[in-house]
Prior knowledge:
Layout: H1 2-10, H2 13-24, H3 30-44, H4 62-66, E1 82-83, E2 88-95, E3 100-104, E4 107-110, H5 111-114, H6 119-123, E5 129-135, E6 142-144, E7 149-157, H7 166-169, H8 175-178, E8 181-188, E9 191-198, E10 205-208, E11 212-213, E12 222-225, E13 233-234, E14 239-244, E15 247-253, E16 265-267, E17 272-274
Antiparallel strand pairs: 1-17, 2-5, 2-16, 3-4, 5-15, 6-14, 7-8, 7-12, 7-13, 8-9, 9-15, 10-11, 10-14
Amino acid sequence: MKFFAILQSLLPQHHLSRAAGWLGHLQGPNWLKTTLIKAFMNSYGISLKDAEIEKPEDYAHFNAFFTRALKTDARPLANSRFVMPADGELSQRGAIAEGAMIQAKGRHYTATALLGGDAVAAQAFQDGSFATIYLSPRDYHRIHMPTTGTLRRTCYVPGDLFAVNKSTAQTVDQLFARNERLVCHFDTADGPLAVVLVGAIIVAGIETVWGGVEAPSPDAMRETLWSDDHAPTFAAGDEIGRFFLGSTVIVMASSALNWAAEAGAAVRVKAELAD
């Protein structure tokens, strides 16, 4: 596993990921696009029975298939204080202890580092809770709000693009605080909330409903602020973004939570996360 991590560090991570994005948006020839989608479905055991578009040939390109919308009744909204923001695996969840969160057994990272070095913002989560959801290539790749909140600020943090699967999380120190990510800060009835969209190798981009595709900027952080008059509010379960290929979402709450699922559980978006 360490060899795999070292190999990733030697690869041109950003160039590979952007190339994947370009290829994923190619719309022809139609037979090639459909063949690629069907091969991907067979490799990962993907069913389209919950998708709005059920036929592979009806997708405009591979990325449209990968970020496919679901039928409106496919993921009912749980009656819970916090709901799952994505389909995937609840890889870790727990308390933010002295500003630190669990990445994997024996490995931790800090809230300050995850938030791009913003110690002031991290202080609000000092005694809070976090949940990490890993989206594999087979999962639904749209991200939804875990609770009702008003968007106040986003911060794009440049970084590496290591894979974010279990084996890499066990071998790469500070993985989520090293990878490229978009930190979304919300105000909620329960206090500050951060939803962090973490990029990964071959992830061709992060897109939000308020700003479109987040343009990569390898050399500088980028912050966007919303005034009271223009800040959008999202209800629990509303879509807020999507990934082009698999990655990770980290939810940070400012209060202690009573968890509805154990770490390692397979989860579905809008199901109960915590009360």
